[in-house]
């Protein structure tokens, strides 16, 4: 499976978690792909640069350089979309008006705390909305490939990148499994790849607990 297909697989699975009527913020990277799988659901996608009502990615004919998300990627808008300034956007986030935040992550520890805005020794553009979304959204879903290009895991015992907030995420959707975090234990609710629970535990280096519905 190509890297692009893997990213789409994760985004499609996250879209299945979303419910009609929810206001959803999509972070940079894999999360932006979720909107492509929202057809048939009554969802409201928000971007912290001041837009509520993001639609699917534009075709070449629909492309408008002035319509972008927080990651400066071109977007379309849905009927009834609204525009506002960044201060109002962050008031929505900090005021608890975002039902779900879908965040790309760099690392998550066994407590479910994430690092997703800075890599040591690399240029930092700024924290953006990461800390506000981790704190303010009613539900936080992490989106990431489970392993980096060098094969190291993104689930770690201790974060080595700057933490985004002390709040723990509700779930992590990866290309191999869906993970939850409770009482310092990492659970698996669904296997999505070709590795068993035992094989995942060995490769990650952490004992995983099965939390699936069939248990």
Protein described:
This protein is α/β, with parallel strands linked by helices. It has a single domain, classed as 3-Layer(aba) Sandwich (Glutaconate Coenzyme A-transferase), CATH 3.40.1080.10. The chain has 4 helices and 13 strands. It has helices at residues 3-15, 86-94, 130-136, 197-204; strands at residues 23-26, 44-47, 51-54, 77-83, 100-104, 107-109, 114-115, 139-143, 155-156, 171-173, 177-182, 185-191, 208-210. The protein has a 10-stranded mixed beta sheet. The longest helix is centred in the N-terminal third of the chain and has 13 residues, at 3-15. The radius of gyration is 17 Å and the shape is globular. The two termini are 29 Å apart. The mean pLDDT is 93.
Blueprint of the fold:
Layout: H1 3-15, E1 23-26, E2 44-47, E3 51-54, E4 77-83, H2 86-94, E5 100-104, E6 107-109, E7 114-115, H3 130-136, E8 139-143, E9 155-156, E10 171-173, E11 177-182, E12 185-191, H4 197-204, E13 208-210
Family: Belongs to the 3-oxoacid CoA-transferase subunit B family.
Keywords: Transferase
Organism: Ureibacillus suwonensis
């Amino acid at each position: 499976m190509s890297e692009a297909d893997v990213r789409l697989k994760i985004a499609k699975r996250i879209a299945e978690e979303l419910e009609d009527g929810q206001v959803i913020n999509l972070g940079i990277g894999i999360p932006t792909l979720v909107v492509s799988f929202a057809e048939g659901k009554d969802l409201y996608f928000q971007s912290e640069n001041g837009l509520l009502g993001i639609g699917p990615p534009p075709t070449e004919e629909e492309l408008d350089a002035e319509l972008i998300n927080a990651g400066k990627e071109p977007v379309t808008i849905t009927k009834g979309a609204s525009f506002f300034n960044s201060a109002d956007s962050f008031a929505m986030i900090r005021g608890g008006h975002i039902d779900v935040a879908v965040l790309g992550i760099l690392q998550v520890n066994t407590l479910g705390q994430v690092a997703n805005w800075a890599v040591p020794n690399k240029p930092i553009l700024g924290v953006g909305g990461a800390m506000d979304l981790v704190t303010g959204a009613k539900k936080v879903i992490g989106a990431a490939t489970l392993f980096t290009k060098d094969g190291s895991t993104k689930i770690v015992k201790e974060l080595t990148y700057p933490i985004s907030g002390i709040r723990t995420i509700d779930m992590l959707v990866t290309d191999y499994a869906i993970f939850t975090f409770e009482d310092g234990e990492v659970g698996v609710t669904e296997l999505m790849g070709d590795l068993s629970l035992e094989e995942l535990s060995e490769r990650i280096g952490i004992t995983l607990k099965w939390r699936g519905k069939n248990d």
